[in-house]
Write a structure and sequence with these properties.
Elements lengths: L20 E8 L17 E15 L2 E6 L2 E5 L5 E19 L19 E3 L4 H16 L6 H22 L4 H4 L3 H13 L6 H7 L4 H11 L4 H19 L4 H7 L5 H12 L3 H8 L8
Helix pairs in contact: 1-2
């Protein structure tokens, strides 16, 4: 027999007096992953995605990463992320959203520094991490009230495990270091004003550059034009509103910047593969409905 003894004193990864809170869990099956979750961000929560099977591409903060089974993706609060469904091959994922995360030295609801690549290979911990995600999802799906305390400690354990893993194995994000500061500034402007009547000419004039140079900046870094970026931001935010609120589709179209619902319906189906109504019915909670 080999016996090891635990040392129970430790320094917490979180600020004193704070504690993370599990908000939700999602299971994205192979069927669901065929419908892209377009460019979006969560200002008030941290999101973790665990790749259970398959492979594909995922974009976090303007950088595209190849992902495969066993990878874990961290999206800090306020960080834009985007799926690339045309590269998905049998992709299935579990995800959780957490708030109240106060890691020492980082902004609220940030698990890793912004200059660290957000993809982690779980390798020998695959089975353990998969089990934690599955347990959290199952308990929320079946509303197991008696497991709330267990879910809390599982969530905290998962977060501290990931903090330690990124500190040991995290890689510097060289693409972020090389990023064009003007492009970042323009993106921030669009992110804050995507619901307004933006135009290529108007954005160019605001930042004192030519429309052609503006288009070149976007296509070189992101692979698509500024107008394409605006539409993706609108569709991504519309998806969040469709699945997280019961707001009428006509109101959502207006809120994200479309001047009429017909144009919104056409663009949404073009990018997502489903109409807004069909998307809501497939992904939204059963007790929410369109009005």
């Amino acid at each position: 027999m080999i016996q090891c003894f635990a040392k129970n004193s430790f320094t917490s990864s979180f600020e004193e007096g704070t504690s993370p809170h599990l908000m939700s869990a999602s299971y994205i099956t192979i069927d669901f992953s065929q419908h892209a979750r377009i460019l979006h961000k969560h200002p008030d929560r941290l999101e973790l995605l665990f790749i259970r099977s398959g492979s594909g591409h995922y974009i976090v903060d303007n950088t595209q990463y190849e992902i495969k089974a066993g990878n874990l993706i961290v999206t800090n609060a306020g960080v834009l992320h985007d799926e690339v469904p045309e590269h998905n091959r049998g992709l299935a994922m579990l995800s959780i959203a957490v708030d109240g995360v106060h890691v020492k030295g980082l902004p609220e609801n940030h698990l890793i520094p912004s200059d660290i690549e957000p993809i982690l290979k779980t390798e020998k911990r695959f089975v353990l991490i998969d089990a934690i995600f599955q347990e959290l999802f199952d308990s929320l799906a079946f509303e197991e009230e008696q497991q709330r305390e267990t879910n809390h400690y599982l969530t905290v354990s998962l977060l501290t495990m990931l903090i330690n893993s990124f500190q040991r194995y995290g890689k510097i994000n060289t693409d972020r270091i090389k990023e064009n500061p003007l492009l970042r500034e323009i993106q921030h402007y669009i992110d804050e004003n995507y619901m307004e009547d933006l135009s290529l000419q108007g954005i160019s004039e605001k930042f004192f550059i030519s429309p052609s140079h503006l288009s070149h900046l976007f296509k070189k870094s992101l692979g698509y034009s500024p107008i394409h970026y605006i539409v993706r931001r609108r569709i991504g935010e519309a998806q969040s509103l469709l699945i997280m609120t019961p707001k009428p589709i006509t109101l959502i179209a207006t809120m994200v910047g479309f001047d009429n619902v017909s144009h919104f319906n056409v663009q949404f189906k073009k990018y997502v593969g489903l109409s807004p109504m069909a998307y809501r019915k497939k992904y939204m909670l059963p007790d929410s409905e369109d009005k």
